[in-house]
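Structure, all two chains, one model.
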Amino acid sequence: MPLESLRDSGHDAAIYVKGKTMHYADATLTVHLDAIAANYRLIATRVAPAEAAAVVKADAYGLGVIPVAERLVKEGCRLFFVATLDEAVELRIGLPSATIAVFHGVRFGQEQVFLEHHLIPVLNTLEQISRWSVMAVGAPSALPAMMHIDTGMNRLGLSISEAEALVRTPEKLRGLDVQAVMSHLACSSDRESLMNHEQLKFFNQLRTIITGTKYSLANSGGCLADACYHFDMVRPGCALYGINPYYSGESPLAPAVTLRAKILQIRTVDRAGSVGYGASYAVQKGGRLAVLPVGYADGYLRSLSGNGAWARVAGVKVPVAGRVSMDMVVLDISDVPEGKLTAASEAELLGVNSMSVDEAATRAGTIGYEILTRLGKRFKRVYAA
Amino acid sequence: MPLESLRDSGHDAAIYVKGKTMHYADATLTVHLDAIAANYRLIATRVAPAEAAAVVKADAYGLGVIPVAERLVKEGCRLFFVATLDEAVELRIGLPSATIAVFHGVRFGQEQVFLEHHLIPVLNTLEQISRWSVMAVGAPSALPAMMHIDTGMNRLGLSISEAEALVRTPEKLRGLDVQAVMSHLACSSDRESLMNHEQLKFFNQLRTIITGTKYSLANSGGCLADACYHFDMVRPGCALYGINPYYSGESPLAPAVTLRAKILQIRTVDRAGSVGYGASYAVQKGGRLAVLPVGYADGYLRSLSGNGAWARVAGVKVPVAGRVSMDMVVLDISDVPEGKLTAASEAELLGVNSMSVDEAATRAGTIGYEILTRLGKRFKRVYAA
C-alpha cells in the first residue's frame, strides 16, 4: 500500500494519536528521551568505529517508536531495525529518509511494499533470498538486503551449512546488495557463558567464507562486551531504553521511564482484615491504604503481587499491599505521616525514586524488556526532552 | 471535552483504527463475538430477574470495547461498567444511548465531563459524594450515581461505618439519584472461601441500613454462585470473555479468542544444540523447529517458557521450544510429518484446538484475565460474528 493511501486511510492518524487519547488519565508515563539519547551516545562511543544502529521494534520496546527514533536521528543514528513490516511502514511515515531493516524478512507477496517504502529485508532463508533476488531482475540498481545466519540460537536465519552452500553458488545472490551479514547472541546476558565464545568463533569463520560485506553480531549485551564482538555494526535495543542487558549488577545505563499515578482513594482501615483478591495481605485496624489507578492491564504485572514490590509516596518507601488487580494496585501507606498527603499527592511506581524497571522485572520473575513492552495504553504519556 | 470536539480532534479515529492498522501481520487474533454473546445470555438467564450488566473495562479485557459492547447491546445489555473516564468517553462515542458507569468515580475537575457525556460515577468516598451532590444544585433533575461500599476487600469504596454515618445525614445525598449500592467480592474465585459468606453477611446488613435503591454484589464468580449473591444487578466481566472465574475445574463458558500465526521459518537442526535465549532447550541433529512471529511483546507471556506450553501445527500438538522472545516463539515440530506442512501452514497458539486461555494462564503462573488484557496490538484482529 503506497504511503499516500496509508495517510488517507488514517494509518498515520493511528500513529500520532498514540498516547494522546488519554485526556483524563490519572497515571502518567514519562519517557526520558534525553536518557535514551545518552544511552545511545554511551554505546556509540564505546563501539566506535563500529556503527551503532538502533533496535526500535515493538514500538521502541513500548516507549513510542516515532518520538524515540526522531530523537535518535538527532544523535546521529542512521540505521533502525524493526521486527515486522507493519512496524517498518509506521516508522517510514515518521522517518522518510532513515535506513530501516526488518528482522522478520520479506514474506511472499510483501516484496512490492518493501520496494515502495525503501525497506531492507533481513533475509533469513534460502527461499527469501531467492525471491528477493528475483525482484532485482529489471531493477535500476542492486536491491539492498541483509543476511541473517544462525550461529547457535536456532531461531531465525540460514544455517551455517546453507550459508556455505550459498557462497559456492554466487549466482543465487545476483542483483542483491548485501549490506550486512548478521547473527544473534543467545546468551549475551551472561558474560561468562561459553556460548558467547562459541558463537563468536562461528561468526569469525563465516567472515572468512562470506566476504566483501559488513558484519554485525552484537545486541545490547554484545555492545557492552569486549570489542571483539562489535565488528562493523551493532544493534542495541534494551540498553537504549535503560535496561541492563546483564539482568544483574550495576547498570551504566540511564533509566528511560518514570511511572507516576495520582491516588484514587486513601482509606483508614476500620477493622482488622485483608486487602485485595484472595485476601492475601493482612491489615490492622488503623492501618492506612492508598488505591492507585494502575493494574496489570496497564502492564504493572500481576506477578508483582507479594514479591516485595514497592513505590514511593511523599518521600516514603511503601509496599504493595495484596494482589495487583486489573485496574488498581493498593499501597500500604501506614508509614506515611498523615499531614504529608494532599489531594494532589502522587505515587511513583517506577523511576529513580522507586523501583527501577530492572528491579521490578526481577521481583516479577521476568526481564525488564517484558516490563517495558507491556506498559499500557491508558497512561498519559509525556515525552521529556 | 464535548463529543464534537473529540471527534474533531481525531479521538474517534483513534478508536476505530484500533486493530485496523495491521495490514501485514502474520498473526491473527480472532474475537468470537458469538461466544461473548452466548456467555452473556448464559449469565443473564442464570441470574434473572436480576439485571446482567457488562464489565467492559480495559478495552473489554483487551478484546475491543466497541465491537464487544455493540454486540452485547444486541443481546439486551443496557448497563456497562468501565474503570476510567477515558474509557467511558470512548464507549460513549460508540454507544450514544447506553448507560455507562465508571468504577473509579469522579475526580475533582472531571464533573462537567461526566455531565456532558451522561456518565454515572461510582462514588467511592464521602468527598466524591459531596462533590457530586454539589453538582446537583441547580440541575434540572437528580444526578444519577452509584455508591460503592467496601465489605472487606479494602480497595475502593466507603467503609461500612462511613455508610452508616451517611444514612444518618441524608442531606449529604441531596440531589442524587442513587441507582445502585454495590460492593465487590474479594475471594469469589474460591467457592469455598469463608470470605464470600462474610461479605454477603455485611452486604445484607447494609441493605437494611441503606434502603430504596438497587443492590449489586456479584462479579463473574458471584454470577455463577448461588442466587443469594445476585440481588438486583450483577457485573460479570471475565466470564463474558470465556475466562473461568474459578481458575480451575470445568468451565461452562465459551472461549472468546483464537490466536493463530503463520510460520516465519522452518529449520532442520544441522547439529545438536540449543534453542533461544539462555540456551534452555536442547535439540538433536535432524530435529525440526518452527519460528512464529509472536512473542511476549504481543502478550504471549515470557513465563510461558519452559512450562509445558504448546500449540497445534497441522493437527499435531507441539511444545514451545526454549524461551519466548520479544517478537518470536519457537515450536519443536519434530513430530509433525514433513509433508503436512506448506507455506501457508499456521500454528494455533490459543483456541479450542490448542491451549485455552485458562490453561495458558495456569502454565504462565497467572490468571486468564492477565492473558487477555495483554494480548498485543500487532495482531491482525478479526471479529467473528
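Chain A is about 30% helix and 20% strand.
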